[in-house]
Design goal:
With 116 residues, the protein is of the alpha+beta class. It has a single domain, classed as HIT-like (HIT family, subunit A), CATH 3.30.428. It is 24% helix and 22% strand. A 5-stranded antiparallel beta sheet has the order 1-2-3-5-4, covered by helices on one side. The model has no long low-confidence stretch (mean pLDDT 97). The chain binds guanosine-5'-monophosphate (5GP). Guanosine-5'-monophosphate (5GP) binds next to β2.
Length: 116
């Protein structure tokens, strides 16, 4: 398992970052460099580096990430117009922080799904 990232410190609030949501499995906070008007990161509290490292015992956590995304989208007022959820994996996927995180993106019309 790779070393913890800055996200573990945010989860533990060793680096103070306003949390939008936290429970025993997941934590959500705003992206430090938002690409669109609503850009939230939803992360497992447990350090799981990439989607490749997800195991059967993580299924509840991964499902909770989706449920929290739904709740936050409603709170942000973007649920009806729509939004996008993205999890990048490894180099080709563009992953920069090796602690799984789901991007919740919305608040404006998003461009094409991929630019390659
Ligand atoms: P990735 O490219 O790994 O899918 O996305 C990593 C995301 O984490 C980027 O959108 C980046 O802006 C965000 N990020 C990196 N460091 C921090 C940080 O210290 N705090 C917050 N809130 N977001 C961060």
């Amino acid at each position: 398992m790779t070393e913890e990232t800055i996200f573990s410190k945010i989860i533990r609030q060793e680096i103070p970052t306003p949390l939008l949501y936290q429970d025993e499995l997941v934590t959500a906070f705003r992206d430090i460099a938002p690409r669109v008007s609503t850009h939230i990161l939803i992360v497992p509290n447990k350090h799981i580096p990439t989607i490749n490292d997800v195991s059967e015992s993580d299924e509840l956590t991964m499902g909770r990430m989706i449920s929290v995304a739904k709740t936050l989208a409603k709170e942000e007022g973007i649920d009806e117009k729509g939004y996008r959820l993205i999890i990048n994996c490894n180099e080709d996927g563009g992953q920069e922080v090796f602690h799984i995180h789901m991007h919740l993106l919305g608040g404006q019309r998003l461009g094409p799904m991929l630019s390659v």
